[in-house]
Amino acid sequence: MNKRAFCFGAVLAAAVLAWGTVSAFGQYREYYFFGRVVDTDTKPVAGVEILLRDVATSRGYTIKTNDRGEFKFAGLPHGIYTVTFKKEGFAVKEDEWRFPNPQDTMQKVEIPDVTLVSQELVDKAARLKIDEARIQEAVEKIRNKDYDGAITLLRDFLEKNPDEVNALYFLGLSYARKKMFAEAVETLGRVAEKTPDFPPVFFELGLCYEQLDEPEKAIAAYQRNQELDPTNADSAYNSGLILFRLGRVPEAQKAFEDALALKPDDPEILEMVSRCYINGGDFVKAVEYLEKAKAKTTDPDKIKFIDDLIHTLKEKIKGGC
């Protein structure tokens, strides 16, 4: 009897152990993770080492992606996992997968595509960040009117990056502010070639060509700026001034009127429109625009000048001129 009781106890103990083993085994087969590793062009990346580590137990699991960039972890317990993706030539990527809820049956979980960035791209981004900081430093020098400092910094930078258009643009700007107009035109011209749809470079070229006494090139630059940026009244106004000086008054008046449409209360533009009417002999219209200019002017000397001009024109009108 005792022997049978002993055997029965052993069988019972064995059954309990078996149940415990099955239960424990069931805990470890709750999740089936699968997914794919790709590069920044969405091409699969083979041979990526993936290390999965359970935060609570520090238990680790390692696998590599196949030729199609695919991976799978079958039969993992619930938990929070840190995940590390490693492959030579790529930046290490870390992630966290949170699956804390126990499951009675195995759950399939598709992990969204994991993108690895090549080390070359990472290095390039780092260089761009450094380059951006250097150019920003040059911009600050320009703001502080330290044009020599900006020129030195940008020349140094362009020795290693000769085609960097931002650096070229700010170098051209620095030359222009230093009144080195020939150098400015050469540098800004390179920017215009590389970025033909960048409006500010054509405005700056217009200013430089004016200083170099090349009016036709200045007009062309301002017109290109207006084509790209129709809201820039200054380009139209500057074109008008050049055309007026060249005696091309009808063209000048059209340019001033274009500028006035954008800045209807600008006293300088109003005055130049009036001068075009004076040139054409329409003194009544000229007085009308001069009155508007006077109303928007705050400089006492300028107001007196306009008053005198209005008085002279009114005398001409009375005299039948």
Straight-line N-to-C gap: 145 Å
Name of the CATH superfamily of the largest domain: Tetratricopeptide repeat domain
**Main sheet, how many strands, which sense, barrel?**
4 strands, mixed
Q: Count the strands?
A: 8
Overall mean confidence score, pLDDT: 88
Strand coverage percent: 5-15%
Rough outline: elongated
Concise overview:
The protein is an alpha/beta fold and 321 residues long.
Write structural notes for this entry.
- The protein is α/β, with parallel strands linked by helices and 321 residues long.
- The chain folds into three domains: 27-117, Immunoglobulin-like, CATH 2.60.40; 119-226, Alpha Horseshoe (Serine Threonine Protein Phosphatase 5, Tetratricopeptide repeat), CATH 1.25.40; 230-312, Tetratricopeptide repeat domain (Serine Threonine Protein Phosphatase 5, Tetratricopeptide repeat).
- The chain contains twelve helices and eight strands.
- The protein has helices spanning 2-27, 119-143, 147-160, 165-177, 181-194, 199-211, 215-228, 233-245, 249-262, 267-279, 283-295, 300-318, and strands at residues 31-38, 49-54, 60-64, 70-76, 79-86, 93-99, 107-110, 114-115.
- The strands form two sheets. Strands 1, 4, 7 and 8 form a four-stranded mixed sheet that branches. Strands 3-2-5-6 form a four-stranded antiparallel sheet, with no helix packed on it.
- A hairpin with a 6-residue loop joins strand 5 and strand 6.
- The termini are far apart.
- The model is unreliable at 1-27 (pLDDT under 50).
